[in-house]
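Lab notebook, page 48
Experiment: co-folding of the full assembly
Goal: obtain a model of how the components sit together before planning crosslinking
Operator: M.T.
Materials (sequences as entered):
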Amino acid sequence: MSRTGKTTLADIATKTGYGTNTVSLALRGSTRISQEARDIIAKAAADLDYVPNNSAKSLVLKKSHTVGMLVEYLTNPQPTAVATELQREMSERGYGVLFATSSTPEQETAAIEMFRRHGVDGLLIYPVDHTSIEHLRKLRARNFPVVMLVGMRDTGLDAVGVDEFQASYDATTHLIALGHTKIGALGPLVDKPLKIDGFRHAHRVHGLPLDERQIVEPVGFSMGAGYDGMRELVAREFGLTALFASSDMYGLGAMRWAKDNGVSVPEQLSIVGYDNIEFGEFSHTSLTSVRNDGATLAKAAVERLMQLIDCDAKLPAPTLNLLPGELIIRESSARPGARSWVNTDQAQANRAQISAKK
Amino acid sequence: MSRTGKTTLADIATKTGYGTNTVSLALRGSTRISQEARDIIAKAAADLDYVPNNSAKSLVLKKSHTVGMLVEYLTNPQPTAVATELQREMSERGYGVLFATSSTPEQETAAIEMFRRHGVDGLLIYPVDHTSIEHLRKLRARNFPVVMLVGMRDTGLDAVGVDEFQASYDATTHLIALGHTKIGALGPLVDKPLKIDGFRHAHRVHGLPLDERQIVEPVGFSMGAGYDGMRELVAREFGLTALFASSDMYGLGAMRWAKDNGVSVPEQLSIVGYDNIEFGEFSHTSLTSVRNDGATLAKAAVERLMQLIDCDAKLPAPTLNLLPGELIIRESSARPGARSWVNTDQAQANRAQISAKK
DNA sequence: TTGTAAGCGTTATCAG
DNA sequence: CTGATAACGCTTACAA
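Observation: model returned without errors.
Model output:
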């Protein structure tokens, strides 16, 4: 045993009397080694509690059997579930997953740097800014496998993800079909524009005018941000009767705002969320939302990454795998109610309060 | 450049005309190398986009600068937030985090095996079964650093975590102090007994009789499981007016059950959760819950792990770091209301339905 | 201040 | 079927 207390091939070799490479071969089940020798060696390995040294293996094979997984945050249960699935899938294939979160481009760069140091064989990434991915393209150009977990077109990268644009279009269309004409939206504008783009597209297609005031970008990613965003939307007084929230977290935050301000959902305010998290399903008023199949997404992403990793030659042309999102209609969305609430005393008082804070 | 396309020390050496070890030393900022040489070498490294090979380094240093992080699942936002913090803390110290989830002891064993293969320097673990941790003790006995993320006494392991027993005692005491005498509980009994133990302890201390029927172990970890557990508790007909849920997810599931069955919270049913997740805070009826400071927990756990890793000699005696939980009282808990609901028509109908299903 | 040589644990090549 | 030997990229004596 070496001084670190770890058993090595050499230990097994001396114990069994075979050479180290015979041991190596035997442990990997090579038929070039006699069955007898394989048995003896396997037993010795078990006795000595042998665990292969992945570093040594990586060094010679130039493969670490490790991939990096980089997500923006684990606050949102949906991507978190995907992350869990990704790890499971990689694990089944004998890969370890180094993980990191990054909420700024700088952190993202630092994490990727860390991954490279650790010699990961590939990268699964949900980038902070979906619109600036030049650094990822550069990695790919150097033949480094990268799979982006966003269903975005024309990235020059391998991408697997839900068709956010289409799903958001569908969600908005659902509200329009119900008869809503003044729909507010809560979601990112610059970093991750797909959902709001889909929201806009639905207005265009259905000939509904859209004012920029109808869109608010919440500050941060949390229910509190959704709560504040809702307050801001209402303060803009365009008479909204429905909300498209780019995430259930925003939607649920907005729902609590409604409760605090005497606005009933869905009678006076319809809300459609995105991600279909369990918290929305079991909310006091269950939340209409866009379901995406995280398990399928994870499986597809991992499969693509493995293809890229197992490709010895130059990487093939990037592939886009767009998965469908499914709108699940629940209690929070309905036809616009008769009762208007934008001019109730409660709402008036509330707006006064907002103005006072500014 | 080696054929994998990665720059090595040797590449920098040939480019600059220095020897490889001079380069190695220079890159690590050794003063044994002239300032001039260091500058030249640093520039060359940057030009060639040099990234150190961690495998090679690990091999010679016998340190992978990687730790394993094993959690049961990332469904619950609270431990998930802790996991994120743990990664951040380790990252700041230059460590990579290999992560895995395990929901069965077998998966746990497999994950630990995987970690060992990858030569992790230590392990942060939230074990599946808090009562059978012999395998972790064995690791420690072999001088392998393990920090358990559970505030449990007498484990023979290093442990950092919230004092779940005390916090659960406090939460239950809060309900008792409000005047509740028939309190149901939703939580794990065997695997993770601390919270229910605290619940029991509160009954003992305050001289309140407790029937085993008052405790239900939900099947699985989800809001749905809490919902079903609540239904089961009510079906047992001991006249409960309050619920202690070992997790906000259970508590929120139970709250939705109450809504579906015309039981108002807190007038007819008080609910206290655990974990203080944002979903509880922004719930229609905000949830009284036990707050634990995930950031502090993560910091303390990482600090302890680093101590163990940096200790060349035999590992010091295990340490227990119990952090306090703080009860945050919100809308979901109140004095028992005048209106009884256990015998309302609604409840009767509901119970009939439950019986029919069996 | 810098270079040389050995070794970390594994796999691959090539003999025997 | 099995055993030397070299190599992977890096660090650490030890020499120069």
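Interpretation: Chain A touches chain B through 58 residues (CB under 8 Å).
Next step: discuss with group before ordering constructs.
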